[in-house]
Design a protein that fits this description.
By secondary structure, the chain is an alpha+beta fold. It has helices at 6-22, 44-48, 112-128, 156-166, 205-209; strands at 39-40, 54-64, 74-75, 89-93, 97-108, 131-135, 144-151, 174-183, 188-192. The chain has a single domain, classed as STM4215-like.
Amino acid sequence: MSNYEVVSAVSEALRRILWDEFSADSNIVPQFINSMQRIVFSNPTETARNSDNKLSLWLYQITENEHMKNQPPARARQQPPQPPGSNSREALQETPMALNLYFLVTPFVTAGQAEHMLLGKTMQVLYDNATIFLRDPNPNRTLAEELRVVFCRMSLEELTRIWEALREPYRLSVCYLIRITHIDSRRITDAGRVIERDASFNSDPESIAG
C-alpha cells in the first residue's frame, strides 16, 4: 500500500527503467535520448514547443479500478491505546483507493526513422518489464506496489481524439495502462469485539423496529 505520492513515483519508476535500458544501447544514446531529463512528463503540446529530442510519458487519465473497490477494510498499522478494564477494540483502516494510470507515450525526434526506432525500443523495454515492483528506500514514505504494465489497444480514432483535444497535429504514439496503484485512506474506524448478542423473533415489524 502507498501514500498519495505513489502517482508521481510511478512516473519516476517508468523513466528510470527506460533510461537504464536506453543508456546501455548505443543506437539510442547519444543519437536520440542522451540524458534521463530527455524523458519528460509534460503533455505533448508543451513538449512540441522545444525542438530537442525527447520521449514524452504523459499521464493523461486516471480511473478507479472497480474490481478492487469492495475489498474489506484492513487492521490499522497503529492501534489506539486501550484503557484498563475496557473491551478489546481495534482500529480499521478504510479500503485503499485502487487506481489505473494511463500514459500516452510519444517520441519527439527530428527524423522520422529515428522516431520509429525510439518508439520501438520503448515498447521493447516496457514489454520486458511488464511487472514492476515499486519500493521506496525513503523510510519516511510508504510506497510499496506491484505494478502491471499493459499495452492498450486503442484505435486510431481514439488516439486522434486525444490529439484533437490537445489542438496538436497527430503524432505517432501508443498508450500504456499501469495497473494497480493504491493510495491509502486516512479514514480510521473503531471496531470492537462482539461480547454479547441478543436474538429475538417477532411477527410484528413495528415491534422489531422499536
